[in-house]
UniProtKB/TrEMBL annotation, chains A, B:
The lineage of its organism: Bacteria, Bacillati, Actinomycetota, Actinomycetes, Pseudonocardiales. It comes from Kibdelosporangium persicum. GO terms for molecular function: DNA binding. This is DNA-binding transcriptional repressor AcrR. Gene3D superfamilies: Tetracycline Repressor, domain 2. Residues 7-67 form the HTH tetR-type domain. It comes from the Bacteria. Residues 30-49 bind DNA.
DNA sequence: GCAAAATTACAACGAACGTTTTACATAGTT
DNA sequence: AACTATGTAAAACGTTCGTTGTAATTTTGC
């Protein structure tokens, strides 16, 4: 696709919109501000997008797919041919949450989704869930299943464990401790022989 | 304190504000809507509160303290004289997240705090953190320490474990599985004798 | 060079909002 | 009944916002 002025403007709008939506949220993000940061006029934004909501949806879904692909590759790389599982999980968590300028805007948008979902159609929210979080969790669950088959993990429900792990590393920042808890739990070891287990 | 018309109106405003802030968020919650649900005029709201932000802060902090007291008592009740720890933790998680009409509005407000914090002064956010989540987590950490002293938990860092547990039960809804993972982890049991542990 | 496409700049529109003003009504107290 | 405190209803004010219209300008393609 040739670089044309029209494409340039489109890209600039998408980029600026992602930054502004991520920074101040859907409602507070004004078309004026987005236009200013994109270096275009508001009229131009409306030449490319029907309205604010369509802009939001397009920006959100495009970056969700992009980020999901990166995360899937990351999971593949980190959890294949594992020799030291704790270290691999810590490395995955660290890489997963490492600040990356090109994705920071997207993550900022994502972190707001729960609170802002009532402000746009539910199908946008669901499309994001499908394109982003769920897709990545499925990839993680598949890896967990393989690790289970290799005897490295004891996960009766890999999907649940994947969901739990992603919640833990998203919300709690000390990854060595998180991974340790994920693998070993907090029950004293002598209790593994206790009745009820 | 005698029930006066003024107190009645104040209470009605606070109650309606909590519901509206929780339902649609700080920005979208209009004074008109709150007044309508409270059954007062907007003028009356300004007779009681300087502005929208003060209303929000007062509503938020009052209910945070109230809910924290309930949670502290709950933790005390559920994690004292424990005979079956897994069952006690599951019961705590279930009670913690059980729908309670009188607190639903508060929890809805709380769930939005992360995304909405940029819209009001940071000190409101921090005051909420102190009056609510942190306070409850400290109570939970103290309980975990006692359970550790009783040999029922192996928690080197009770504060961390408390934080992790509260994140887990807040974000993941299958409490038996969550508690199982929290206590036992996902490492196969034979690996507890592996090197590197 | 010319026509078409795209953009800019700006004004305009209608709506929504937080807040204040104003006049009148209601409630409580003495 | 008189006075004070409080509430109501509605208008007004200033601001912000999403969106559209319009004329002029710039860029692109032939």
């Amino acid at each position: 696709m040739a670089v044309t002025r029209r494409n340039e403007k489109y890209d600039a709008i998408v980029r600026a919109a992602r930054a502004v939506f991520g920074r101040v949220g859907y409602l507070t993000a004004s078309i004026d501000l987005i236009a200013s940061e994109a270096g275009v006029s508001t009229r131009t934004i409306y030449n490319h997008f029907d309205n604010k909501e369509h802009l939001f949806a397009e920006v959100l879904l495009a970056s969700s797919r992009q980020v999901a692909e990166v995360h899937e590759a990351m999971i593949e790389r980190r959890l294949t041919n594992v020799t030291d599982l704790p270290a691999a999980l810590v490395a995955l968590a660290e890489e997963w949450n490492r600040p990356q300028p090109e994705f920071d805007d997207h993550f900022a948008m994502s972190r707001r989704m729960g609170a802002e979902r009532a402000h746009f159609p539910e199908k946008i929210y669901q499309a994001w869930r499908e394109a982003g979080p769920w897709r990545v969790q499925r990839a993680l669950a598949e890896r967990f299943e393989e690790l289970r088959d290799q005897g490295l993990l004891d996960v009766p429900d890999a999907g649940f464990a994947a969901h739990l792990f992603s919640v833990m590393i998203a919300e709690v920042r000390d990854y060595p401790k998180v991974v340790h808890a994920f693998l070993y739990g907090y029950l004293p070891r002598s209790c593994f022989e206790c009745p009820g287990r």
